[in-house]
What we know:
Blueprint: H1 18-33, E1 36-37, H2 38-45, H3 49-61, E2 65-70, E3 80-84, E4 90-97, E5 100-107, E6 112-118, H4 125-141, E7 150-156, H5 181-186, E8 193-196, H6 198-209, E9 218-223, E10 227-233, E11 236-238, E12 252-253, E13 263-264, H7 271-280, H8 296-323, E14 328-333, H9 337-354, E15 360-363, H10 370-385
Parallel strand pairs: 4-7, 7-8, 9-14, 14-15
Antiparallel strand pairs: 1-3, 2-3, 4-5, 5-6, 9-10, 10-11, 12-13
Helix pairs in contact: 1-3, 2-3, 6-10, 8-9
Amino acid sequence: MARARADTDLMGANGGQAAQHNRRVVLRAVQRDAPISRTELARQSGLTKQAIARIADKLIEDGLIVEARRRQGLRGQPAIELELNPSGSFAIGANIDRDHLTVVAVDATGTVRGRAHHEERFILPDRFLELMRDALTSFRRKKLIDEARLVGVGLAIPDWLGEVPVIGFPEAYHAWTGFDVRAALRKLTHHPIFVDNDANAAAAGELRYGLGSESRTFFYILANASLGGGLVINGVRHGGTAGAGAEIGWLPTGQSSDAERMRPLGRIFSLFILYDYLRQHGVDAREPKDLLALDARGRALVSDWLREVSRPLAEAVLHIGMIIDPDAVVIGGRFPVRLIDELLRYVSERLEQSGRPYPSIHRAATSEDAGALGAAAMPLANMIASDDA
């Protein structure tokens, strides 16, 4: 049975502008709580059953929702339940970072219909646009998306991509500074373009496809080539006044009496830092998959590094808990799942030893392609929120 919600964006309205608002309310409720019956939609929204019936019929006619099945086991006539029509809308999501580009084509339910991935370091803007053009062309040629129902292209990109120094940063990478990526993407497609920080996008993706079904307030730690953070409060991604909210990579960690050990968390925990640690010990790893192919010595080195990283990470989780008091802290990104699980075990042990209250900590459901899936969620969310929905 659909869960009752007090969310104001699921409440119907009366008045001159009510028709489009109520249509959005119903579509949003179906997206969040499907499968859901017309009776439950009426109960959630406060609209009459007759109004819900009219709106649902129009959404079915427009191909945005479908009658999925009849619910059995209840008294009387089984209720007909509504779901999003997977082919009712499509979106493209891309995630560019210092070590990769991932592009996904998803349907209305978030199911990945197509994926293009390039494990390539320090991709420059011209190369990025070339690979994006190839991905869009491939998706169209293979008919993985219905162009007429493509609602937009989203891009998840780290802030200050061409400015923040990371290990191996080439001088040419400054080309990203001042590059108008939104304008460049407009030359590839006439569909709406959405751009956001990669960690914010990953948090939005987790809200829609992962922990968001259970928790409405959580902090997302994105561990990729570099470190980032995203914050969701009461089901809404919170970017802050300047859009730099939850930027956990700059959080100082360490004992305040030991200035040499007071380092930003982003200088301690990331894929590039792990690769460099292994290199210093004579082990070559340049991609996430390399971390799963290490010999016994390499695996032991990774475990040692994860144990060491767990200390400042647990400290960060305690700070997040005190300042934000979220339902959960989520860790995702391109670290292999096995390594995230091992890290979470060490962090949990340190949190328990701290003797202080702390939020629950979990692995993200959308780890590897979190940024790209979150980027695709942006145009889909906009479609549901827009007057054209």
